[in-house]
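Q&A log
Question type: sequence-to-structure
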Amino acid sequence: MGDRMSGAGGTGRTGRWRRTGRKRLGPQFGWLWAAYAVSAYGSGLGFGALPLIAVLALHAGPAEVSALSAVGPAVGALIAVPLAPWVEFRRKRPVMIAMDLVRCAAMATIPLAYALGLLGFVQLLVVSAVVAATKIAFNAASGAHLKALVRPDDLLVANARFESTNWSSIAVGPPLGGAAIGLFGPVTTVVADALSYLLSALGITAIRSREETPQPTAKAPVRAGALLDGWRHILGDTGLRALYLNNMLVSGLIMATEPLLAVLLVRQLHFPAWQYGLAFAAPCLGGLIGSRLARHVVARYGRHRVFRTVGTLRAVWLIGLVFVRPGVVGLVTVMAVELAIIVNMSLYTPALATYRLERTPKHLVARTLSAWSIGQQASIAVCTALGGLLADATGPRTALAAAGLLILATPLLLPRREQAQEPEAALSHA
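Response status: OK
Response body:
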C-alpha cells in the first residue's frame, strides 16, 4: 500500500522526541488524526441525537426509541458484511472520503426533512443503519491505512492518540450538544455532525503519501467466501479469538446498561437532566488518563499482562451501578464506577488495537477490522435488547445486576499466555 512516512518519529527515522516528550509521527498522520478529531467531536455533539429527535419531534414511545437504538445499528452491521471485501481491495483514502460523504448526506436529510415537515420514524431508522454501516467501513479502511502510514513501533502511540481524542470528544460533546438543542432546536447537533463528516473528508484529501491499489492475493478475491475471511483469520488465531470473544461480551454488557441507567436515574431516582449528563460526561476525562498511560504501561509490564490485568479491571466495576441511590451520593457512585471503567478501557484499547493490526496481514486488515466491528455491534444490539426485556419484566436494577454479574466472567476469555509474534510474511500465508 502506501509508502511509510519518511519523517515519522521526529527528525528522521531515529524516532527522536520533542522536548515536550511527544513523539512526532509526521504531517500525514497529523492530517489523519485531525480528520478523526473533527469527526469525533461532531459525533460527540450529536451523541444520542436520533433517539432524542424521535422523542422530541416525533413523540416516539419507549419501544420505538429502543428499536432505533438496537435495530438501526444491527441492520447497519449486516449491510457492512459485503462491504468488507470491497474495502479490502481498494485504495483506503478514497474509501474513507466516500464513507464520510455518505454519512454527511445521510445525516443532512434529517434537518431537511424536519424543515419541510416530512420527517418520519422510518427515515431515522434508515439513517441510523446507513451511518452504522459506513462507520464500520470507514474504520476498517482507516485501520488499514494507519498500518501503512506509520511504522510498526509507532502504532501504539498512534492508537493511543486516537483513543484520547475519542474520550475527550465524549466528555465535551454531549453537554455542548444538549445546550445547543435547548437553544436552537432538536436537529441542531445533527447539522453539526453532518458538517463534521464533510470536514473529515477534506482533511483526508490533504494526506499526500503515496497509496497503491492493493493487489489481490488470489484469482478470485471477492468470492462469496471472502465475506468471511475476516472471521476466519480472527477465529484461527488463538490470541485474537480470545480477545474478540472477550471484547464482544464486555462491549455488549457495558453498552446494554446505558438505557437501563437512563430509566433508573431519570425516571425512578429523578435525577435532573444536567446531573444525568454530568454523570456520563465527566468520567470520560479518565479516557485521557488511560490513553496517555498506555504506551508507558505496555513498555513497563508487557502487553500480555496489560491484557490480563487491565482487561479484568475494566470488568469488575459494572456491578457497582446496582447500588446507585438518589442525591449526591448516587451521582458520585455513577461517576466513580464510570471513571474506573473508562480509565481501564482507554488503557486497554490502544494495546488491543495495536496487537490486532500486528497479528493481521495487510491483505486481510480491512476484512478483519470489519468482522471485529460487526461482531461488536451485533453483541451490543443483542445485549441491549435482552437487557430491555429483562428490565421490563423485573426492573432496571435487576437487569443492571445481571449485566454486572455476567461481565465478571469475561476475564476467563482473556488469553492465558502470551502469543508469540509471527512475522507478517508468515501470517500472510495463514
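Response note: Residues 1-20, 423-430 have pLDDT under 50 and may be disordered.
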